[in-house]
Amino acid sequence: MAEKLRLGGMALRNGLLVHGPTHWAAAVRRHDGTIATASGHKPRVHAVEKLPGVRGVVRLGEAMVVIPLVKRALPETRLPFQDAKVLGAMFAAAAGGRLLRRHGTGPGVETAAAAISLLPSVVALRGGELAAYHGVEHKAIAAYETDANDAADVAKEHDRCGSHLMAPLLASNLAGAALLRRALVRPGPAAQLAVGVASLGLAVEVFVWSERHAGSRTARALRRPGHELQRVLGTREPTAEQLEVGRAALAEILRVEVPPVQAS
Predict the structure, then answer these.
(1) Between 20 and 30 A from 210 (CA), which of 88, 170, 222, 236?
(2) If DSSP states are collapsed to H, E and C, what string results for the chain?
(3) 199-226 pLDDT, tens per residue?
(4) DSSP β-ladder status, 35-41 and 8-11
């Protein structure tokens, strides 16, 4: 049996972007009801695979670089943040976080700032089809991984969802902010950025560890907040038409990716 490709993805407002080992593929529903697909090579940095804390940040950066490539190939693509309400929430969250940190310090302030930073995601998921296409992402990938006959039959929550980064990211941010306050009387933006990047790197390493030790009690506990976030807010059961878009994106990534057994 051929080894399964490791796939990831990102929900779009009108479709799905899937990441493979070397390529990306996307499918979107046009305004006229037809489905458009596109694919391309992923930019890769190969010198960081064995650098814990760095590799995760670089991989996330690579995923962000793909977004304009998708938009160029499929101009009909509607990105998660491509909405006036979401952009307004992003501005409000950034301003609110700065205001909190300017007038206070301590774990309570950092916790409140972290909670405010989630506002844009909540606004994006509560309106439109984004939460449903997030469900499409999980179902399409899980159906491929488990050889399910129909993506509609699998769960809309997935163990590799980015929501599992939230708990370790919040914990590492709070710990990093506490250390920063001990080291510096008035931490500047550069120091705060460094803590944020380091926290993200640590959260990704926790994410990877949880995947490698999926059956352990610790991994299940670490994933519980993410699963609940997906179940309650992050995903919604998709329609048959939305699942059709997911199948198109999956078919395209499987078309352009070389199976691992052939690449070796």
Answers:
(1) 236
(2) CCCCCCCEEEECCCEEEEECCCEEEEEEECCCCCEEEEEEECCCCCCCCCCCCCHHHHHHHHHHHHHHHHHHHCCCCCCCCCCHHHHHHHHHHHHHHHHHHHHCCCHHHHHHHHHHHCHHHHHHHHCCCHHHHHHHHHHHHHHHHHCCCCHHHCCCCCCCCHHHHHHHHHHHHHHHHHHHHHHCCCCCHHHHHHHHHHHHHHHHHHHHHHHHCCCCHHHHHHHHHHHHHHHHHHCCCCCHHHHHHHHHHHHHHHHHCCCHHHHC
(3) 888 888 888 888 888 889 998 888 888 8
(4) unpaired
Say which residue the tokens 């301590």 belong to: 106
Give the integer Cα–Cα distance in Å for 215 and 157.
Answer: 17
